[in-house]
Design brief:
Blueprint (H helix, E strand, L loop, with lengths): L1 E4 L5 H13 L3 E6 L4 E6 L7 H5 L4 E5 L19 E3 L2 E3 L5 E5 L6 H14 L3 E3 L17 H14 L3 E4 L6 H7 L2 E4 L7 H8 L5 E4 L6 H13 L5 E5 L17 H8 L4 E3 L1 H5 L5 H11 L3 E5 L17 H17 L8
Length: 340
C-alpha cells in the first residue's frame, strides 16, 4: 500500500506511522517530496489493513497497490526514475547509447572500439569480461584481465562501462570495476543473484529473458528494488517467437507498455534481438521513436574476426551511420543523444 501523509504532517507523526508499519512486519520505502511524504509499505496486510493505517494521525489517504510488482509500479512512484552514472543521467529526455564489443578480446581491440564509439557519440562503453556461452568450448571471456582493460578504457575515454555479472562468486570482483552491472537474459530469474546485486547499490541493467512475460520481468526487477537498490534499468533484447529468420523477435511494443506500467528507465538491445548486423540500424532508430531511454549496441573493429557475436556486430563505418540515424530519430522526437 501507499500512505500519503498530509501536507502539514509533523515529523513525529511520520516517524510514528513508519514505526507502526514496521512493527506489523511491513517493509518501508519512504520518499520525502517538497510538500508531502509518501510511504510505501510492502508485505502481508494480515496484521494491518488500509483502514487501520488511514486512521493514524497525519495520514491523508492510503492507496492500495494492486500490481504484483509493488515498488516497480507507477502506482508506487508516478514520476520517472532517473539513474545517475558518473556524469550521465539515464531515464531523462536524453538517449544514452551503450556501445562496444560483445567480449573483451585484447587491449588493442577494446581501446580501438572505445575510442571510436566515444568519437561517434556513445556515452557508455559495453564489453563482456565474463561470457556465458551455450557451448563450453566457446570463448568464455578474459575475466579479471578484461575488467582491468575496461577500467583502462574508461580512464582513457571518460566513458563509464557496463559489463555482465554471471554469478555470486564473481560479483564482488565485477562490482569493484564496473559502473553498471548487467544481469543477462539467462539470469533474469536467478533470484539469489538478484538479491545479492541489490546489495551493491550500483545501477543494475536487467535484461529480459527471451521467454519472460512483462510481469515476470518486472517481478525480477522487484527483487532488486525490494533489496534496497532503486537503480534498475530494464533492457529489452528480443523474445522467442515462431520466427527463425532472425535470432529473436525484438518486442518494441514493450517500450510504451513499460513506460505506462513502471517508472524505471527502459533501453533496447537491437543487436542481440536481431542477430544480424544489417537490421540493427533500423531497429535502433525505431526504438528511439518508441520512447526508449537508451540503446545497447555491439561494435567490433573487425566483426569477421570477432570471438563471439560477430554476425550482429557493427563495424566502425556502420556504427557511425547508425549513430547519425539515431540522432535524426531523436531530433524528430524533440530529444538528443547524450548528455542534456
Amino acid at each position: 500500500m501507499i500512505i500519503v501523509m498530509a501536507q502539514k504532517a509533523k515529523t513525529d507523526q511520520i516517524k510514528a506511522v513508519m514505526a507502526r508499519l514496521e512493527e506489523s512486519g511491513l517493509s518501508i520505502h519512504a520518499s520525502k517530496g517538497e510538500e508531502r511524504t509518501i510511504i510505501g509499505a510492502i508485505g502481508s496486510k494480515t496484521r494491518m489493513n488500509e483502514m487501520t493505517v488511514e486512521s493514524l494521525p497525519g495520514v491523508e489517504k492510503v492507496v492500495p497497490i494492486l500490481e504484483p510488482y509493488k515498488l516497480a509500479s507507477r502506482s508506487f512512484k508516478d514520476e520517472d526514475t532517473i539513474i545517475s552514472v558518473r556524469n550521465l543521467k539515464i531515464g531523462d529526455n536524453a538517449v544514452q547509447v551503450m556501445a562496444g564489443p560483445c567480449a573483451v578480446e585484447s587491449r588493442e581491440q577494446l581501446l580501438t572500439v572505445a575510442r571510436l564509439v566515444k568519437e561517434a557519440g556513445a556515452t557508455v562503453l559495453r564489453g563482456g569480461a565474463f561470457k556465458p556461452r551455450t557451448s563450453p568450448y566457446s570463448f568464455q571471456g578474459m575475466e579479471e584481465e578484461g575488467l582491468k582493460l575496461l577500467a583502462e578504457a574508461r580512464t582513457l575515454t571518460g566513458l563509464p562501462f557496463v559489463t555482465e555479472v554471471m554469478d555470486t562468486s564473481n560479483l564482488s570482483l565485477v562490482a569493484q570495476y564496473a559502473d553498471i552491472l548487467q544481469i543477462g537474459a539467462r539470469n533474469m530469474q536467478n533470484f539469489f543473484l538478484l538479491r545479492e546485486v541489490a546489495k551493491t547499490g550500483k545501477p543494475i541493467l536487467l535484461k529480459r529473458s527471451p521467454s519472460a512475460t512483462v510481469e515476470e520481468w518486472l517481478l525480477a526487477a522487484e527483487y532488486i528494488l525490494a533489496g534496497g537498490n532503486p537503480n534498475v534499468i530494464l533492457c529489452e533484447r528480443g523474445i522467442i517467437t515462431f520466427e527463425n529468420y532472425v535470432r529473436n523477435t525484438l518486442d518494441l511494443t514493450v517500450v510504451p507498455v513499460l513506460k505506462h506500467l513502471t517508472h524505471l528507465p527502459v533501453i533496447v538491445d537491437p543487436s542481440h534481438a536481431i542477430g544480424k548486423w544489417r537490421f540493427v540500424k533500423p531497429m535502433a532508430r525505431a526504438a528511439v521513436a518508441a520512447g526508449a531511454d537508451g540503446l545497447l549496441i555491439e561494435v567490433h573493429p573487425d566483426p569477421a574476426r570477432a570471438l563471439c557475436d560477430g554476425p550482429q556486430s557493427l563495424n566502425p563505418d556502420n556504427f557511425n551511420l547508425t549513430m547519425a540515424e539515431i540522432n535524426s530519430s531523436a531530433s524528430a522526437m524533440g530529444r538528443k543523444v547524450g548528455c542534456e
